[in-house]
Design goal:
The protein is α+β, with helices and mostly antiparallel strands. The chain has 2 domains: about 110 residues, Roll (Ubiquitin-like (UB roll)), CATH 3.10.20.70; about 230 residues, Creatine Kinase, Chain A, domain 2 (2-Layer Sandwich). The chain contains 9 helices and 16 strands. It starts with a helix and ends in a 14-residue tail after the last strand.
């Protein structure tokens, strides 16, 4: 951006406009700093700092120094918040001219911090690059919308638009009446996503009352796909606030309703543009090897995919939430689903063309995913 265009942007901005520098925590939460837009240059000069322990905070605000040894042990030194221009976007719910950007925590000597999820993901992407491979990733985010007074009542309740005479209006899975009843809220989600340039695609009503899913399109950049998902969570949160509601990605907000999951689709492209997970045009041995590796590490991966006690309330027998270490062709009940194209019956899917792996075990508040290599 030239000095002239930057000056023009500043003159058009609201005097209270800001840029929010955001760090992704190990629990998928966002922490950061709010900086006046007129001081934006300090963001790009890498002078924004926060304690290096910021991303180690758990949901209770404990810095877990007994595990990380980077807080009280070291005197809680600063880290450098290096903003990623690729993630720079608008802040639709902020004053005109406001922006937001995701950052990677670095130590004071300039190295990516070991606790930063974006740094961890960047390191995994580098390993793929060294092998001439590119992960192509997309996510599907499930969430609930509830009335905003749940803290006062002690009990979450579906939006009033979905309730009649105190009772929820029936079973809403894929019901277009449910999306119509929540059209104002979902329209705000769509508008915010469009303004931010997020590749939001289909929106569906899910099993639970007030539960919805928004799909994001694939990207040949795992970091960008993860950023999109983090931003989408933020969009849903602030869209709900705009309509006097509360959005939650908690795995199981209701004991008697379906839980929410985060589905991650991944395929892998080689240097010739070939999808190596395509059983016909790709490498069937690698497809089997990757699937086997995911199954072998699945229990350990639950520390990332399901980090809270509430996460395990979602894994119930007799539901579509996976509760076994298993895989299947096009099977929505397995934690590792091999997606096939063109669509076919389960009986013939193995003769079709698997094109991607869908990981179904994470919950929406899972820590940032890192494709394994």
């Amino acid at each position: 951006m030239t000095e002239l265009s930057q000056a023009a942007d500043l003159s058009a901005a609201d005097p209270s406009a800001r840029i929010e520098v955001l760090l992704v925590g190990m629990n998928g939460d966002l922490r950061g700093k709010m900086i006046p837009i007129k001081a934006e240059d300090k963001v790009w000069k890498n002078t924004v700092r926060l304690p290096a322990s910021t991303q180690s905070l758990d949901i209770w605000g404990d810095d877990n120094d007994d595990i990380t040894r980077i807080s009280l042990t070291l005197g809680d030194p600063d880290g450098i918040c290096m903003a990623d221009r690729n993630s720079l976007t608008t802040l639709p719910w902020g004053p005109a001219g406001s922006k937001q950007v995701l950052a990677t925590m670095h130590t004071l000597d300039g190295n990516p911090h070991f606790i930063c999820p974006r740094a961890i993901l960047a390191n995994v992407m580098k390993r793929f690059e060294e092998r001439g491979l590119t992960p192509v990733v997309a996510t599907e985010l499930e969430f609930y919308v509830v009335e905003a007074d749940f803290r006062e009542t002690g009990k979450p309740m579906p939006p009033k638009a979905l309730v009649m005479n105190g009772e929820v209006e029936g079973f809403q899975l894929y019901d277009m009446r449910a999306t119509a009843a929540m059209e104002d809220f979902l329209g705000t989600v769509r508008r915010f996503a469009d303004e931010m340039g997020l590749p939001a695609d289909a929106t569906t009503a899910e099993f639970g009352a007030g539960q919805f899913e928004v799909n994001l399109l694939h990207k040949p950049d795992a970091m960008a796909a993860a950023d999109d998902c983090i931003y989408l969570k933020r969009v849903v949160d602030f869209a709900a606030r705009r309509h006097g509601l509360k959005a939650t990605c908690m795995a199981k907000p209701y004991a008697d309703q379906a839980g929410s999951g985060l589905h991650v689709h991944a395929s892998i492209i080689d240097k010739d543009g070939r999808n190596i997970l395509d059983a016909k045009g790709g490498d069937p041995v690698k497809l089997k090897s990757i699937t086997a590796g995911m199954l072998k590490t699945m229990q350990d991966a639950q520390l990332i995919f399901a980090p809270f006690a509430n996460s395990y309330r979602r894994f119930q027998p007799g539901s579509f939430a996976p509760d076994k270490v298993d895989w299947g062709f096009g099977n929505r009940g397995t934690p590792t689903r091999i997606c096939c194209w063109p669509p076919s019956s389960a009986a013939s899917c193995s003769a079709s063309m698997p094109t991607s792996i869908r990981v179904r075990s994470p919950r929406p508040t899972a820590r940032r995913k890192t494709p394994t290599c």
